[in-house]
Design a protein that fits this description.
Blueprint lengths: L6 H6 L8 E2 H10 L4 H8 L5 E2 L2 H9 L2
Helix pairs in contact: 2-3
């Protein structure tokens, strides 16, 4: 993927996530909300750690 997903789309597909959340939890939530392949791939490419909120996820996705 050449560009990071739109942050609004990303957060829409992560609705209902309880933070802090791990990478696997975020990927599962995105898949459960029918996220696009690009969003799932962006989450899979993030470092495997705990994220304390939506902003931390957005930052990790855009720093690839």
């Amino acid at each position: 993927m050449s560009t990071a997903p739109n942050p609004i789309d990303l957060q829409k597909h992560l609705g209902g996530v309880d933070y802090p959340a791990g990478k696997a939890d975020l990927i599962k939530a995105a898949r459960d909300h029918n996220a696009s392949k690009d969003i799932v791939e962006a989450l899979e490419a993030m470092p495997d750690r705990q994220y304390d909120g939506p902003n931390a996820v957005s930052e990790a996705v855009t720093k690839r």
